[in-house]
Design a protein that fits this description.
single chain; five-stranded mixed sheet; alpha/beta
């Protein structure tokens, strides 16, 4: 962890602090279908100003009251929502614990707000925002609509849009047997995000002050 309160991350993303999120759900409708798993990877920087994963929060989540459970979605993820071995918690508990950790990082890095990083981010953001609304949480540290989508970033940097293929192209180990769990997918998405941002920096794309000689004065 960096001990600098005003760190590299403060200016890197316009005051936003990136948090990698992945959710597993019981369908595609964020308003009606259950949120069953959520994981959040918090980002830090090393001594060379390279992004890295600082810590990860992961929760199995109880379906909210009246939630719809699509059997096809359960078959796909292999999740049994009512298996006691899941040690699931309610949505509001999971969100409050994640938000508590996020706020600590915001303070540490002097960032004004968190921004979600996810693969196909609109899906994860929809379920996060719906859970926040159901839980009546007033202080959501995440921007309500801005996100960094690693699908688009991977298409630009690696020519791939599928998470597994993007990871493989970046030489990030990916086990298909572990995929489709929030913990695994968030960790791989976080590795991928850090790889792309660090690679861009290594190629001379950041900081922008180093690119002044490339700007035409004509």
């Amino acid at each position: 962890m960096t001990d600098q309160p005003d760190s590299f991350l403060t200016g890197r993303f316009r005051g936003y602090y990136p948090v990698v999120i992945d959710v597993e759900t019981a369908g595609f409708n964020a308003k009606t279908d259950a949120l069953l798993e959520i994981a959040a990877c918090l980002i830090d920087i090393d001594a060379n100003k390279q992004l890295k994963v600082a810590s990860t929060y992961h929760f199995h989540v109880n379906p909210f009251e009246g939630a719809n459970l699509e059997q096809s979605a359960l078959d796909f993820t292999g999740i049994d929502p009512y298996n006691p071995l899941r040690e699931a918690v309610d949505e509001d508990y999971a969100l409050k614990e994640i938000f508590k950790g996020v706020r600590k990082q915001l303070k540490l890095h002097n960032c004004k707000r968190a921004v979600m990083v996810a693969h196909n981010a609109a899906f994860d953001m929809g379920f996060l925002n719906a859970a926040v609304e159901r839980s009546h949480i007033k202080r959501n540290p995440f921007h309500p609509f801005v996100s960094f989508d690693t699908t688009s970033l991977s298409a630009l940097a690696l020519g791939q849009t599928v998470l597994a293929k993007a990871c493989q192209t970046a030489n990030i180990e990916f086990d298909h047997n572990e995929a489709h769990s929030a913990l695994y997918d968030s960790s791989k998405t976080a590795e991928l995000f850090c790889y792309i941002v660090n690679r861009w920096q290594a190629l001379g794309g950041w900081p922008l002050s180093d690119q002044k000689h490339l700007v035409s004065t004509d």
